[in-house]
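To assess whether ligand presence alters the predicted conformation, the chain was also submitted together with iron/sulfur cluster. Input:
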Amino acid sequence: MKEIGLYIHIPFCKKKCYYCDFTSFSGKDNIIDKYIKNLIKELSLYKDLLKDSSIKTIFIGGGTPSHIDGKDIEKVLAFVKENFITINLEEVTIEVNPGTLDLEKANRYKKAGINRISMGVQTLNDQHLKSIGRIHTEKEFYESYNILKTAGFQNINLDFIFGLPDETIEDVEKNLEKIRNIKPAHISYYGLILEKDTYLDKLANKGMLKFPDESEERNMYYLIKNKLKNMGYIHYEISNFALQDKECKHNLLYWNIEAYIGVGISSHSYFKNRRYWNRNNFEDYFLDLDKGIFPIESGEDIHVNIEISEFCIMGLRLTKGIDKSLFKKRFKKDVDYFFKKKIEKHLKNGLLIEDKNFIKLTPKGLDLSNMVEVDFLL
Ligand SMILES: C[S@@+](CC[C@H](N)C(=O)[O-])C[C@H]1O[C@@H](n2cnc3c(N)ncnc32)[C@H](O)[C@@H]1O
Ligand code: SF4
């Protein structure tokens, strides 16, 4: 039986953060009930299509899933369990924000089968939290984190961002020292992306913000990598660090180009060699579901050549590299059959290294990954 991942999008937030361009909205709480009903309608359209698939991971992302009533999350998960094959379900993650949790909600998550939490923190510096428009303080983060611990959650990821306005390497160091004391199972530490037309981008365009320069940013990344490694975290993807066996199984499924279904507005799916994405606004999403049709905006067939390239490029993002035996199992030929000359070129110029099982980027290769990735396009 084919194993798949399920992504469920909850596009509501208490307030929009200044840097964020995810499909998420504040001030639309009046349509949460309608949205949940439609999510369930969309899931029911998949019953037949997924009758031979077993759901291995579920990721409830956003937006801020913890902004809505815990009963709604329970309802959606109960529907999934009643209508799909979940006997092999290993990981159920929900994204939460500090300041949107109480013990009742956390207990409800636990009862509903959620076994992994991903909490957006971004920084533990109150001044920086304010300057990026977060709704919470450092103190509120600890309160929410303790609630999760009291409810019995062990497998917790914390999201951080470096390269924030006015942030110095000493500020990043302070965050890392706090992480040392908290010791969560998993850390995602992203470099800030100044997304077009966000409030932060507009302020930056007016010259009102000062960001760390390129070399400061690179030093921050090296510091994060080294310190987290010293604390016992395994650096398994460019921005992701995990204690032993605590890698995110759902994200690994994306990075290994495996099948997943996404429900909710703007969600993406990759199923039966087709990639497609949903309507990205509520009106069209509700309209399609009223008509009883999939709320799909568009899609494309993924030819095996694209699949091979994506498998390799995503493999290079994983610090262990391209898994040669997995490649052979999946594509029935050695990776050398397609890329021998290109691999040799990068082994010679010191951007790749190879052992019996893996081909991976060297530290120099990580800095110049674009140069290597283009050579894996078929
Ligand atoms: C889907 S978001 C939502 C998580 C959750 N709502 C929260 O904010 O706490 C997942 C993560 O993406 C990261 N992120 C969002 N926008 C970003 C940006 N412009 N640059 C870098 N990281 C970003 C943040 O770390 C965030 O926690
Ligand atoms: S970062 Fe999270 S809380 Fe902030 S706007 Fe984006 S999805 Fe919402």
